[in-house]
Every structure is written in C-alpha cells, then in structure tokens.
Write a structure and sequence with these properties.
mainly alpha
C-alpha cells in the first residue's frame, strides 16, 4: 500500500474519532465504554498504519510525531 493511501486511511480514522467525541463532554465519554472502545480501536488502527509507511515518507515530514503514533500500539 502506498504512503498516500495510508495517510488517507489515517485521516479517516481521525475523522471518525472526532465525529464520535464532537458533541459529548469528557464526563460522558469516560462512562461510555462503547465510545471508549471505538476510539481506542481507531487509535490502534492509526498506529498500525504508521508502521506501514515508507521510511522516506516519514523522513519527509519530521514535524509529525510518528513515533508517538506508533506508540499507541504499545499502550493497549
């Protein structure tokens, strides 16, 4: 899979998370296990996709916290 397709998928996962949490408070979020699991799933997908990016692509955009995004997988 090329890097542009991967980035497009990452953006879709981010959009999903933002859609889920857009109209709820933190207090509502922390008591909603389905919402938490949906967000964690999307975050883990982002971490997996970052691992598939070409090294050249990652080096081209050093301002993006790629390592932190990969680290999402480790925190599960």
């Amino acid at each position: 899979m090329n890097s542009q397709r991967i980035i497009h998928k990452i953006i879709n996962y981010i959009d999903s998370i933002l859609k889920y949490i857009n109209k709820i408070t933190y207090e509502e979020f922390i008591v909603n296990s389905m919402m938490i699991e949906a967000c964690v799933f999307n975050l883990s997908q982002i971490g997996e996709l970052v691992n598939k990016l070409d090294k050249e692509y990652i080096l081209k955009y050093p301002e993006v916290p790629w390592i932190k995004m990969k680290g999402i997988l480790i925190r599960r």
